[in-house]
């Protein structure tokens, strides 16, 4: 996508600000309410990372590097509370890995770098069958508004792999926060913060009970579906959209861009039109943007773009049923903390 240090006061407390939106959503219902991830995770090895030297490693990357190539057993890497500075990259030949922190407000992997939508992220995931829980991934570039640095790509996480799931994780940045590029991804109870295109890419992803915090005028999503036969798209179910400054729910980053929002509580200052075709003006018939069952002051649809789609009941059932849209082969597993 085109386009200082985080203050101590903001550094570890962001996750408490969306307790109220979650409470407001507690009584809403969704088609997929009874979904239970696969709990049959067998841990082959456990590694502990502790900044204070009381574990196997003090750096997350060193723990990952210790895992053998072509790993075929689930490896649990426990991260003790702390702010882990430096990029974490999980290569393609190291699948079946679980990163488990002690809470998204206390276990943080962060960088302060920008300029690349793929290489600047705090987390770069290239391996399939990955789980993360109770961790925040943060890129502090330009987060402190007293530093008026140029707006550049500064992702918190870049996902290049299939079969990745995130539970109670945070993704914090300004621009291109979550580079949801390739593969199937499941996000449960996650917090995603940004200003410009802060969930973008051509992933096939399901966001459930998540909070999207738009921190300035811009676009929440920029989905990049390229053709009619691609199964990709972003589906948001029973989530909260909060924030300040006028924002749009999404703009088309691909000619067949697809974003669906169901049963969301939208308190953010969403512009009445809601969506933008961006560089695909004149081809709006190929774009699929749809909303259903949402509430809150930002959910009014009377002035939405005229080309926003009206899906059938069957189409909504397909996309909001996690088994038909995402989990056809039962790959989604629970982290050990939920077992």
End-to-end separation in angstroms reads 38 Å
- Number of DSSP E strands: 26
Low-confidence stretches: 2-33
Q: Report the average pLDDT across residues.
A: 89
Radius of gyration, Cα only, in angstroms?
Answer: 19 Å
Put the structure in a nutshell.
By secondary structure, the protein is mostly beta strands.
Q: What features would you describe in this structure?
A:
Residues 47-310 form the Pectinesterase catalytic domain. Pathway: Glycan metabolism; pectin degradation; 2-dehydro-3-deoxy-D-gluconate from pectin: step 1/5. Keywords: Aspartyl esterase, Cell wall, Glycoprotein, Hydrolase, Secreted, Signal. It comes from Erythroxylum novogranatense. The protein has 339 residues and is mainly beta. It is 9% helix and 32% strand. Strands 1-2-5-8-11-14-17-20-23-26 form a ten-stranded parallel beta sheet. An eight-stranded parallel beta sheet has the order 3-6-9-12-15-18-21-24, with helices on one face. Strands 4-7-10-13-16-19-22-25 form an eight-stranded parallel beta sheet. Strand 1 (43-49), helix 3 (60-65) and strand 2 (74-79) form a beta-alpha-beta unit.
Structure characteristics:
339 residues; mainly beta; ten-stranded parallel beta sheet; eight-stranded parallel beta sheet; 5 helices; 9% helix; 32% strand; globular; disordered N terminus
